[in-house]
């Protein structure tokens, strides 16, 4: 039985308090004011522009020193007063000890563990994502000041959750590129909390690009060549990364293991130099996924010699290698003339610039911004409350026949059953650290009612029904039954893609048997990152409600119980489609195509038209909402430059205008939507706005998300929500050549249950066509 969260949190607080006196100030990474050897060096002068300091430092380095700074475990340079540095730390949903750059212990026994990203994405709450980022970076800076962590965090993962079997889908914001892009920009902004050029920590968006297969039917990420059309790259796979760089101003991008169209991403100059740094304007460094440069040579056999792989990666735009490959083979690449020392200098300039933006060359950390953060700023009550609130906001009510919320007077005894009913570590998913404390579902429910606990299955694999009888007895004698089922990291994880979408083992049998035996209402709670085909439960009238909790973080049990008993009115929406089991027989994981073709049904809500268990954006409430349009323009104009028509022979009769030929800096049009809470309970409503292009647009999506707002509305009240719609950003589609265009004609906006038509036409310098 896990200890209650309050006990663990108190223990952590006492431990931290006792250790505070033992925490010494971190030795300055560089430019120690007490070191007479370095105080006069130009790169230590904080009043000079960063590029001047970077250039001075690089000029002082020998080639062997430069090369050993191009890997994640960068060497110390005592003659220049520079410490060694481990670049690899993780902060996907809290400070993590997955990377070697972060350790827990002493004054820092744990850190706040927020819900897994797929769960937080279900909140559709941009301000929450940024707030979580700020808390995580507070704790990261505190641990850095205490000598337990770095300042470069290789998070978030913003790959598209394209295939429901992907074991790492849990780490992502879901299947929609707009949602993923907004999550990326806001979480990165929270992490980095920039002040001018200065950074609180340096985030990293990964894994660029078209990476969403780990290990499926003998095909693994190290050998996989993702064949991706220009269209799918531009309107799906690259969208979150572009948002991360352009809007989020991220300090780093990580290239992936896989190849894209026959070329390793970490050796593709079109992707790295051309797109990330050239088109999007990355102000930061590009890092490889760990050992992926070695994989290029050892596994993919992309080059004949290792030094050619090293040279190809550096020339393509890679700045830092997570792994030893560049440290071993770059020297020979220079000797052979495959690259020059100036190529190495360019890479170093990008990494050292980020370190200087972090203040790592500014002397005493305690004298810098955030230098006052320490053990007292980790696992604070406010941080843990935010973790609880994030879990509450991310929980999705999938089905409710009226039995929820439970009543503390009618449901005094609750049978709590299932392999995930009393778990703790399962709730924080992967790429997590050591949590401040846990509240399991069983513990959470016990705060509301007397509980009778039976596992039913000893693990999520559920290979035997030997414990089912006891579970049935518990359900037969309880006022209500809550089954907490689903998955964990033994089923879905990095390098572990699923083979099916059904509940593992005999879980379905346990659920059905318990539901038949239950005296009172039966509620199914699912923990998982990926979707599960629970059609049987959806259609079973004896299962009165279904809740998806994702992996809800350290406070998950409290949040689940709060939703079950109505303290929290659920408002989450699914960030991914839940497909039936037979769907996966039609879509090999290796097929990267988004659009339907022949017998191939396509992927995600934007292109797949077939049956689903639950659709993208699905989520119920304990109250009801009604939408109405208060202000809705019926015509939108796209302004064009007269020079285009003089030089390009354009005509206004074109049915789709290139976005780059439109004046996209023109103002957006505001749509005003009134949302009425017509029920008897206060609730939070997530308004999703989709667009559908005019008929006849080849290869266009069925519909696409263009905006969302989360609003809290008291029972019987109304709120007006304003949504900006801009033709360039929201009504454009990508053609088969990867060119973004704005179709002329009638677009449909789907706002909740309301549809509205908008006519889009081209105007020449504001003159009506």
From TrEMBL:
InterPro entries: BXL (IPR044993), Fn3-like (IPR026891), GH (IPR017853), Glyco_hydro_3_C (IPR002772), Glyco_hydro_3_C_sf (IPR036881), Glyco_hydro_3_N (IPR001764), Glyco_hydro_3_N_sf (IPR036962), Ig-like_fold (IPR013783). It comes from the Eukaryota. The keyword Hydrolase applies. Gene3D superfamilies: Glycoside hydrolase family 3 C-terminal domain, Glycoside hydrolase, family 3, N-terminal domain, Immunoglobulins. This is Fibronectin type III-like domain-containing protein. It holds the Pfam family Glyco_hydro_3_C. Keywords: Glycosidase, Hydrolase, Signal. The keyword Hydrolase applies. Residues 685-755 form the Fibronectin type III-like domain. Residues 1-25 form the signal peptide. It comes from Hibiscus sabdariffa.
């Amino acid at each position: 039985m896990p200890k209650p969260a309050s006990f663990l949190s108190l223990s952590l607080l006492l431990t931290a308090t006792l250790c505070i006196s033992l925490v010494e100030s971190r030795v300055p990474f560089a430019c120690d004011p007490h070191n007479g050897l370095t105080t006069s060096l130009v790169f230590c002068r904080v009043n000079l522009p960063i590029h001047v300091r970077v250039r001075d430092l690089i000029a002082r380095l020998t080639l062997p020193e430069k090369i050993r700074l191009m890997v994640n475990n960068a060497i110390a340079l005592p003659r220049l007063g520079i410490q060694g540095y481990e670049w690899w730390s993780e902060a996907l949903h809290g400070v993590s000890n997955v990377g070697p750059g972060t350790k827990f212990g002493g004054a820092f026994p744990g850190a706040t563990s927020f819900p897994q990203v797929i769960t937080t994405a279900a909140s559709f709450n941009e301000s929450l994502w940024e707030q979580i980022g700020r808390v995580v970076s507070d704790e990261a800076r505190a641990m850095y000041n205490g000598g337990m962590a770095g300042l470069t965090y290789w998070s978030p993962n913003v790959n598209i959750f394209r295939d429901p079997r992907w074991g790492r889908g849990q780490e992502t914001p879901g299947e929609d590129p707009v949602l993923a892009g907004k999550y990326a920009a806001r979480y990165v902004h929270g992490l980095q909390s920039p002040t001018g050029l200065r950074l609180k920590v340096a985030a990293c968006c990964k894994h660029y690009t078209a990476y969403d297969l780990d290990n499926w039917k003998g095909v693994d990420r190290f050998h996989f060549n993702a064949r991706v059309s220009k269209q799918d790259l531009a309107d799906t796979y690259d969208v979150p990364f572009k948002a991360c760089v352009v809007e989020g101003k991220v300090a780093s991008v990580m290239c992936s293991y896989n190849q894209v169209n026959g070329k390793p991403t970490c050796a593709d100059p079109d992707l790295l130099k051309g797109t990330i740094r050239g088109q999007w304007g990355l102000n930061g460094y590009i890092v490889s996924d760990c050992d992926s440069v070695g994989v290029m040579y050892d596994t993919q056999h992309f080059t004949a010699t290792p030094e050619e792989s090293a040279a190809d990666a550096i020339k393509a735009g890679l700045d830092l290698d997570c792994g030893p490959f560049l440290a071993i083979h770059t020297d020979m690449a220079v000797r052979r003339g495959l690259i020059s020392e100036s190529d190495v200098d360019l890479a170093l300039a990008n990494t050292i610039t980020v370190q200087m933006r972090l203040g790592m060359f500014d002397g005493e950390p305690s004298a810098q911004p955030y230098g006052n953060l320490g053990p007292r700023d980790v696992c604070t009550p406010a941080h843990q409350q935010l973790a609880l609130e994030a879990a509450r906001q991310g929980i999705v009510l999938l089905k409710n026949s009226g039995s929820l919320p439970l009543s503390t007077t009618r449901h005094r005894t609750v049978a709590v059953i299932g392999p995930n009913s009393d778990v703790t570590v399962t709730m924080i998913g992967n790429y997590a650290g050591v949590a401040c404390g846990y509240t399991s579902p069983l513990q959470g429910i016990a705060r509301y009612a007397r509980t009778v606990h039976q596992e039913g299955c000893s693990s999520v694999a559920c290979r035997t029904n030997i414990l089912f009888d006891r579970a049935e007895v518990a359900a037969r004698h309880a006022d209500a039954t809550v089954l907490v089922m689903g998955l964990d990291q033994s089923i879905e994880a990095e390098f572990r893609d699923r083979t099916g979408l059904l509940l593992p083992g005999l879980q379905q049998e346990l659920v059905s048997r318990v539901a038949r035996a239950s005296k009172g209402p039966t509620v199914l709670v699912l923990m998982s990152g990926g979707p599960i085909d629970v059609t049987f439960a959806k259609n079973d009238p004896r299962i009165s409600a279904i809740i998806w909790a994702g992996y809800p973080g350290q406070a998950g049990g409290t949040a689940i119980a709060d939703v079950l008993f109505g303290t929290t009115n659920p408002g989450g929406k699914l960030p991914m489609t839940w497909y039936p089991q037979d769907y996966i027989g039609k879509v090999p994981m290796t097929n990267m195509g988004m659009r339907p073709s022949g017998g191939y049904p396509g992927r995600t809500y934007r292109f797949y038209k077939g049956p689903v268990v639950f659709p993208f954006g699905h989520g119920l409430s304990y109250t009801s909402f009604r939408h109405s349009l208060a202000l809705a323009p019926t015509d939108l104009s796209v302004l064009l430059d007269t020079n285009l028509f003089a030089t390009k022979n354009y005509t206004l009769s074109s049915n789709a205008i290139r976005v780059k030929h439109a004046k996209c800096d023109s103002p957006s049009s505001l749509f005003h939507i009134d949302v009425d809470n017509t029920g008897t309970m206060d609730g939070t409503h997530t308004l999703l706005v989709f667009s559908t292009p005019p008929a006849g647009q080849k290869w266009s999506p069925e519909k696409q998300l263009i905006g969302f707002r989360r609003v809290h509305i008291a029972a019987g009240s109304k709120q007006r929500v304003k949504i900006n719609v801009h033709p360039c950003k929201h009504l454009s589609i990508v053609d088969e050549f990867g060119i973004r265009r704005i179709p002329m004609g009638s677009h449909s906006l789907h706002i909740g249950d309301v549809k509205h038509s908008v006519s889009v036409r081209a105007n020449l310098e504001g003159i009506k066509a």
